[in-house]
Each structure stands twice: as C-alpha cells, then as structure tokens.
Amino acid sequence: MVKKWENGVHITPDEYIEFFEKILNLKNNIRLLIITGLGWDPRMSYTIRCFDNTVDRSKVDFDVHLIKYQPYSEFISPYANYIKKNFEDTVTVVGSSSKIQTIEITTRTENNLYIGDSKIIDIYRKLDVQDYDFIILDVSSLPKSLYLPLLNLLLIKVEKSRNENNLLVSVCQDTDFDREITETPDDTRFLNGFKVKSEMLGPDIFPKIWVPVLEKNQKLNLIKLYKLIAPHDVYPVLPFPSKNPRCDDDILMHYIDLITEWRLDPMNIIYAGEDDPFDLYNSLISLNNHLNSVFRNLGNLSIIITALSSKLSSIGAVMAAYELELEIAHSIGRHSPSNNSFLDRYFNNTFSIKDILKNMHLVWLTGEPYIE
Q1: Which of 221, 240, 278, 294 has the fewest CB atoms within 10 Å distance of its CB?
Q2: 3-class SS at 108?
C-alpha cells in the first residue's frame, strides 16, 4: 500500500519563516487564504503576524477568514475583552490592503444540540479552492470539533479540484498553554464529515476498535466516549517523544483506573511523537493494516479515532481518517482558560516574532511537494 503522505512535509519552528521567505516571496501574484479562529486564545493572530513579518505584500493577494463561533447568536462571552483585543490586533496586522471576512457559526440549536461541525461544513462546502494558490488553515485557536471536520472537507475539495492547490495547516504548538485550557464534557458523538459505520450498523455487526490519542485531564470525556463507542478493543496512543520525557508515564498513571477497567493489553499501547503529526499518521496506517489482516475473515472492521491530544497529533489523526475513511468520535464542550491571570500573562507580555516562532509548525498536505 502506497501511503498518501509517505513523504509528507512538516515545517518545524526552525524552518517556519523560510517557508514564507523562500516559497511565497519567490513567486508573483499569489492568491492566499488564511483561515483562523476568532476567540480569546492569544495565539489566533500568530500565523498572520509571522506571514506579515516576512512576505512582500505586493506579491500576494491576501484574504483572511475569522471563524467566530458561539453557542447561540446572543451569547456574550465572559472573555469578550480578550476577543475584542485579538480582533483589533489582527485587523491592525492585516491592514487595509487585504480582505477580512468574519464567518459566524452558531454551534448549538435551541435544544442545545451541537451542530458546529455541520455548520462549518455547510459554509465551506461553497468555497472554491481554485480561487487560491495557497490555503493555510490555522488551528491554533480553533476547537477540534470545528477544525477536524473543516480540514477533512478541505482535503476532499482539493482532491476533487484536480489542480495544484497548496493546503497547509499552521499550528502554534504550545502544550503548556493547552493544558491550561479546560473543556466540559457536554456531548460525545461522531463528528460529521467523516465516514460513520458503527453508529448505523449497530454494536455487534463487526469489531469496533477505539484509538484514543491521550492527554491528561480528560477522564470524564473518556468515560463518556467509551460508553458511546462500546469498543471490542482499545489501542491508546501516548505522546513519546514529548516535551516532558515522562509525559507518557504520567498519562498512564493518570488513567490507571480506566485502563484497568478496559482490561487493556499492554501490547496495544501505541507511541507517537507529540510534535510529529506524521508519526501518528504512520502509526494509524500500520495499525489499520495489521487489524484488517487479523480480522479479514470477518469481512469488515470499524476503527474509531479520538484525538484528545496535542493539536499537531490531531492533524495526523485527520490525515489517517481521510486516507482510510475512518470514523472520529469526539467530546464537545465549553472551552475556558484555567484562570484569567493565566490569560493576562499572555496578553500583557509583548511577544516578539522570535518568541512566537519557537512553537510554530506548518504541515504541508497538498500541492507542490506532491506533484509527480
């Protein structure tokens, strides 16, 4: 089997600025779209700031989509002052020479049912990817329940267009910051946009394998997801290597009661680099091939991924789900910082481009590197 991203391109922090300097500055009349989230997370403007700091604007026709997501239209965020500052900073950086469009998404119905994934798919289904040479999806300040289905949709649209569109994902990978964000386990369900077999065909049609990509402080989410999926077996993914060398051991101990309840076979544990989406992608491809060979006499198999992990790892999960037509189950709730003083430290500090670049990554998924 030839993997779609056998030779995938991961642009690390040391190379991030080089992408803009050597790829964009050497071309003329580039049409570029950056899609990012509009929220309280201070990282929402980092990709745009790096772009603006290095690119000759006279060579680029530059559009920005700010995805403003809220549970209902009249909702007033308790972090409205941070959102306002983020918006103003982004407008200042983008300037008057480029177009900014705010994409408003109401994520819940009157009955409090989550529809954010369906909404973002409906909106971006109308996007003509051929209008742009480069599309950069910045997931640094977007929730997974929105950017996972959006990235999957963009991959589908670029493939159908049969041209040379360059689709990249930009991530400010700051795991220390992410661990200061809490998410309430309001809903657990299969995300729209991904293939869903197990829900429709019932629990006993064929084996269901659950692959949760783990991070700490997700116990309630894991309990609800396990009940939703009712897997026949669990293959958890732990971050190794990671920024904290003991992170994988700490996570195992954090969930030791759940692991005991699941009767987990230690041989099922998978390790994938915290900062390497292609490592998780390759691991999931290998697991899929192995399990399908084991269960081939049963005729079918359902593999369900849950990405509770770092943002970079979650990109690898989408890549595998897209290529293999796998399901993604996710927990969806209200995101909030652990405390306001934590956010104030970020907003009150003046971070230079050099500071920001320490955590910036690009994952190049389609376009020039893959043209034969």
Answers
A1: 294
A2: strand
